[in-house]
Amino acid sequence: MARTLQVRHQLFLPKEVSDRLEALAGAPGASKSKILAEALTNWLDRKGTDELEARFARRLDRLSNQLARIERDGHVQLESLALFVRYMLAVNAPLPEGDEAARAVARDRFAAFVQRVGQQLASGRLTLLPEDER
Fold first, then answer.
1. Three-state DSSP string of the chain
2. Would you give per-residue pLDDT tens digits along the chain (134 residues)?
3. Residues 120 and 127: beta-carbon distance below 8 Å
């Protein structure tokens, strides 16, 4: 059976920690070296994980904040649209049933509206910005 290369270290432990180590090493099959090597390995593995978490935590926080702003902006836009539609439906009288000319004008206006929305989205400009900032 091949043994792994081991290096001897001298270290100092607080009395309470030393007593606990002695108690653990008293179990069958346990040794101080084995307990300390395993504990140190686990600690070093966690330390590497902590560094990764610290490295990515700032990025994840920034992404979370950006997503929260996007969500908030979406709610503002939807609420604005809903209030506008409610207002327009409340102040404008419905078209009479037989008035085909008015319905044709309404269809043309709606088609122009949809086309304008498509153009605005394709251009990437925001309507809410003042003219000089577009």
1. CCCCCCCCCCCCCCHHHHHHHHHHHCCCCCCHHHHHHHHHHHHHHHHHHHHHHHHHHHHHHHHHHHHHHHHHHHHHHHHHHHHHHHHHHHHCCCCCCCCHHHHHHHHHHHHHHHHHHHHHHHHCCCCCCCHHHC
2. 566 788 888 889 999 999 999 998 888 888 888 999 898 888 887 776 777 777 788 889 999 999 999 999 999 999 999 999 999 988 988 888 889 998 899 899 999 999 998 898 888 877 776 666 65
3. yes
